[in-house]
Design brief:
The protein is α/β, with parallel strands linked by helices. The protein has a single domain, classed as Alkaline Phosphatase, subunit A. Helices cover 26% and strands 11% of the residues. The strands form 4 sheets. A 7-stranded mixed beta sheet has the order 5-6-1-7-10-4-11, sandwiched between helices.
């Protein structure tokens, strides 16, 4: 019997890193058994009049660097040095390579790269808790239980990478979308929005997990020396005869394609990189996750989500372990940012952008640095949370995202927030508009629909691409 290898296990909602290669169809939803049988997605085509739209189809890959927990716009991309101290916070600002753009003093490397990215300072929505807001960010759809921490459900909207897999599967690679350094925990259980939802497990972006554990999963992505391609083909034929339903199942086919695609295993082997470059990225989870993302871009993976922080708030349980920190800084915000979050973020993201540029990949890769929301303008102590010094509450009315590559009009800021970075003073941008922009960069128009396993039609987004972000 053909045995398909599995990845490392994690106690998360399906699929865990072990379960995404599981082939037991008995555990799958009946709907999944019909996935791909006579059901086609409908990626619409642009008309000739729209073919010249800025940014259309400029990206071969999209990389989302997800800052889980709610990165403070005031202490990163949209500082307000003239505001009162209880608003501006404890940090100073520094100049960048773009006149008039200043960043937090703890982002010196990114300040030197400001000419390579665009800061969007007027992202806005009204969902105020991590689980449902992560769902919104990762699917482009509001959760029915807004401002809550719901568990993942099989009828959730699919993650954006799953939608792309449904619409436009990669013709050579076994996977169109991959997740790195997850699953994302919000706060202690896997957050909704990072799974395939109602599309079914056949469209689930595999979760590659902690890149520091590469030695645990790399061996299972390679065939044993005694398994020649001919022998593998014979075992596949045996499986087809003994269990034709399992042999034809999409998960079986994906697993076999993975075994037949040595470039995927090669890309995941970070030991192939010089130690000096690995050190430049940072020898920790988020740094190596960014390096792995660059290697996956090189082999042509169209959609990569890097959970820069796999935990929105792991510092409560592990205050001395920087890898466990998230951006949910209700208290002790300035200590957490200065000592744990900002130094690694500055090093790893700046190295990622420089590496893409030096390898000629940035022109065709859309990099998006984003989280589920921002932080409140007023610095205050919260008695319900651990910590001895003040922090900032959740804030979704105004926050920042950053875009680079793939024709983005880099070297400035789009939109203006008020003097406390609390509300937009220019028209806001919704998560749905951001999603539409990402698909637009891949050449997929916003009115495109896809179908689920029972033939229901869904739009990829309710937003519109922001064309002014492109040159």
């Amino acid at each position: 019997m053909l045995r398909i290898p599995r990845l490392i296990s994690h106690p998360g909602y399906p699929p865990s890193r072990r379960e995404w290669l599981r082939l037991s169809t008995a555990a799958l939803s009946p709907l999944l058994l019909h996935a791909g049988k006579g059901v086609t997605a409908r990626p619409e085509r642009f008309t000739s009049a729209s073919a010249s739209l800025p940014g259309l189809g400029r990206a071969k890959s999209v990389v989302i660097i997800f800052t889980s927990g709610g990165q403070s716009q005031l202490d990163t991309w949209d500082p307000k040095p003239q505001a009162p101290e209880q608003v501006r916070g404890a940090f100073r600002t520094i100049a960048t390579t773009v006149p008039g753009i200043r960043l937090c003093e703890h982002l010196p490397r990114l300040a030197r790269l400001a000419h390579r990215y665009l800061i969007v300072r007027t992202m806005s929505h009204d969902d105020l808790d991590h689980g449902s807001a992560c769902y919104l960010a990762l699917t482009g759809q509001f959760h029915p239980r807004k401002s809550s921490n719901p568990p993942p459900r099989p009828d959730d909207y699919p993650a954006l990478g799953a939608v792309l897999t449904r619409l436009r599967p990669h013709p050579q690679l076994p996977y169109t979308a991959l997740h790195i350094n997850g699953p994302l925990l919000a706060p202690r259980e896997p957050a909704p929005g990072q799974f395939a939802g109602f599309l079914g497990q056949a469209y689930q972006p595999p979760e590659l997990g902690n890149p520091l554990e590469e030695n645990r999963f790399l061996p299972v992505l390679r065939l044993s020396p005694d398994i020649t391609p001919q022998r593998l083909a014979q075992r596949c034929e045996l499986l087809r005869r003994l269990d034709p339903q399992q042999a034809a199942h999409p998960l079986t086919q994906q697993a076999l394609e993975l075994l037949r695609s040595p470039q995927v295993a090669t890309a995941m082997d970070l030991r192939r990189e010089p130690l000096s470059l690995r050190e430049r990225y940072g020898l920790y989870r988020s740094g190596q996750a960014c390096l792995l993302a660059r290697r996956l871009v090189e082999i042509g993976v169209p959609w990569i989500t890097v959970f820069f922080n796999h935990n929105i708030r792991g510092q409560d349980a592990h205050p001395n372990v920087t890898d466990e920190y998230g951006w949910d800084t209700h208290n002790d915000i300035f200590e957490a940012l200065r000592d744990h979050l900002l130094p690694r973020f500055d090093l790893s993201v700046s190295t990622f952008l420089e590496d893409l540029q030096q390898r000629g990949l940035l022109d065709t890769t859309l990099v998006v640095i984003m989280g589920e929301f921002g932080r409140a303008p007023l610095v205050a102590k919260e008695s319900r949370f651990a910590g001895s010094t003040p922090g900032r509450k959740h804030w979704a009315a105004c926050y920042s995202v950053v875009l680079a590559g793939a024709g983005i009009a880099a070297g400035g800021a789009d939109g203006v927030s008020d003097r406390h970075a609390a509300y937009p003073t220019t028209p806001p941008v919704s998560p749905a508009d951001l999603v539409a922009t990402l698909f637009h960069a891949l050449g997929i128009p916003p009115h495109t629909h896809y179908t689920d396993p029972v033939g229901r039609s869904f739009p990829i987004t309710t937003g519109q691409p922001v064309l002014r972000w492109f040159r």
